[in-house]
């Protein structure tokens, strides 16, 4: 039996308690300052209001004030805050790290560095933890198609656990894997973390197809708009492939669970798709945002966080803008209220198709 | 202006008349023996009963008895029969070929050859046409996400035109491309034709997720089954990638329109998805077939056509069964009424993930 402390009581953090509990581990779920109502509900009756489900009876619940106590003796500390909470999480856990602990990121996101480098979140976390403790712990992350409510319902869910330290992966797999939670392992930390963050803006772009259809004139034969969505899906995957390979990631990551699989699942619903639909209906971004008050759209955050690095690398000749028409268009849509229209002819420009 | 003869008056053949007509070409739509009712309707009032739409007023219609007349002077002959009709089509057009004509395949499918080789349909067609005329014409094909009804509605549709003869591709692109029909060109005939045929069984497999959900016990929080679908989507893409690369195709084909894009669009509905849903609900294949009377499920046909070659190549050590668990399971489901269950743990075995 191991002790797993999950920081962040959102849907994904809470859902992970289900396989962990099935495996007999001690699970400590710690609310962030944003999770007060959730932790209160869990303490009162074990019910998670966002998952709309009873959590395992053995779960222990902590408020963030008791973080030190919750981390004591933990073998694995899961970082499950939202993408805007990583700096808070680093500050909060820093004083309580114990040598040999594994920090397992489920938060998705990217940052741009001062030299226009793209920084993945495990490295952001590392840079903000106190030395020398930060070098006495291990860093890992989870990528792949995993809707939290489905994992909590024990539906078959297939993911990749990734770490630069291959030595810890068998232990992590053994702790978390169940007959419904299938785990592969990889050391391509960069490729996995890029894929899981990039899938959000590209899923948002796929979501535009539904909005474009809704604002089209009625069609006698009720034609849908899947061809439009599929072209964007393919271009999104091509751009993910380009960026991951340019950064030194492994192409296999893109074409399996963390890339294609996670992009697919993210197009099946959720906030990124809803934002895409609003944009596809012809609303400018600033109006669309007002229709989703208080909601974090990770695809939007990712574009804004990533773009300084992308633009810097384009200016330095390290990236080709011809390879990224979808991402660059999304950036204009989000920052300049540009119309949500794609120039399909600019897609696939760097894929080696014969030019006709 | 060019003359384009389309053989097969099904939805895709008929839909292509829309961009061709917009470009001012002479379109001659020829019904196969299965298309008699369609051609009668088109001749009577220009209405296509399966597309549920008026076709362009300039279209000309022919029954298969008038095929010779319809092919006379044609610059391009589109082969739009169903996958079981390619032998018929070869016999029918053989006597009427003219040197320099382009035969453009939109039919999808594969055959197994006597040496356990996988034969793509343009090569099946060539082998069944009379010498020497068969070597005086060009062979090309279309791949990519293209639901016929959406193309006919002039929705944005993005495809790849492919031929081993790069010289004819600019001409084809110019004939067919419109502001809504976006065309890239490629010489990877093998990769494109493998992808467009393989996407059907893999989309059928993704479709199982919906059936599995329907026959699951009700869930308090209404969890869906997208994680299951996404893992199969990713494994399907991995198996397509494996087969295309083993056969000498270009990986770029898989990760753009003909592979990922077409697989995506095929999972959004249609007969392959419906068959998958029935199987996922727990019906054995022979019962599921009875619920879709008279309907050709291309994913089923593709598995049956392909498997002798796959099994022969596995026996010869040319292919690894570990790389193809999804395809091999589908084959058992279809030919042995095996239960439609996948061993997720066998997925991604050859992708280079660290084994834990």
Short synopsis of the structure:
The structure is a homodimer of 356-residue chains. With 356 residues, chain A is an alpha/beta fold.
Any overview of this molecule?
The structure is a homodimer of 356-residue chains. The mean pLDDT of chain A is 96. In chain A, helix 4 (86-93) crosses helix 5 (121-128), helix 8 (189-214) crosses helix 12 and helix 14 crosses helix 15. In chain A, the strands form 3 sheets. Chain A has an 8-stranded mixed β-sheet, sandwiched between helices. In chain A, helix 1 links the parallel strand 1 (3-7) and strand 2 (26-30). In chain A, 46% of the residues lie in helices and 14% in strands. The longest helix of chain A is centred in the middle third of the chain and has 26 residues, at 189-214. Chain A has 356 residues and is an alpha/beta fold.
Q: What kind of oligomer do you see?
A: homodimer
Strand order, biggest sheet of chain A? 5-2-1-6-7-10-11-12
The overall pLDDT average of chain A reads: 96
Helix content of chain A: 40-55%
């Amino acid at each position: 039996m191991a002790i797993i402390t999950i920081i962040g009581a959102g849907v994904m953090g809470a859902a992970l308690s289900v396989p962990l509990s099935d495996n007999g581990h001690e699970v400590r779920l710690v609310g962030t300052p944003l999770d007060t109502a959730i932790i209160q509900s869990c303490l009162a009756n074990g019910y998670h209001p966002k998952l709309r489900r009873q959590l395992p009876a053995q779960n222990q619940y902590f408020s963030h004030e008791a973080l030190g106590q919750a981390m004591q003796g933990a073998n694995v500390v899961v970082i499950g805050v939202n993408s805007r909470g990583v700096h808070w999480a680093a500050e909060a856990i820093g004083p309580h790290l114990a040598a040999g602990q594994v920090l397992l990121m489920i938060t998705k996101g990217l940052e741009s560095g001062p030299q226009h480098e793209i920084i993945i979140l495990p490295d952001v976390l590392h840079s903000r933890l106190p030395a020398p403790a930060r070098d006495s712990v291990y860093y890992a992350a989870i990528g792949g198609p995993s809707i939290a409510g489905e994992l909590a319902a024990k539906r078959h869910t297939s993911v990749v656990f990734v770490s630069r330290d291959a030595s810890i992966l068998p232990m992590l797999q053994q702790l978390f894997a169940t007959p419904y939670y299938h785990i592969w392992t990889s050391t391509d930390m960069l490729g996995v973390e890029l894929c899981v963050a990039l899938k959000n803006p590209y899923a948002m772009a796929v979501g535009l197809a539904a909005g474009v259809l809704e604002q089209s004139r009625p069609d006698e034969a009720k034609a849908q708009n899947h061809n439009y969505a599929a072209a964007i899906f393919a271009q999104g995957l091509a751009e993910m492939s380009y960026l991951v390979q340019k950064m030194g990631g492994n192409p296999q990551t893109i074409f399996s669970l963390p890339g294609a699989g996670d992009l697919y699942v993210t197009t099946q619903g959720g906030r990124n798709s809803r934002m895409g639909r609003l944009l596809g209906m012809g609303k400018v971004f600033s109006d669309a945002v007002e229709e989703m008050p208080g909601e974090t759209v990770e695809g939007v955050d990712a574009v804004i966080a990533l773009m300084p690095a992308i633009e810097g690398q384009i200016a330095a000749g390290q990236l080709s803008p011809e390879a990224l028409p979808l991402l660059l268009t999304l950036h204009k849509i989000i920052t300049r209220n540009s119309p949500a229209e794609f120039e399909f002819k600019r897609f696939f420009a760097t894929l080696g198709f014969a030019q006709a």
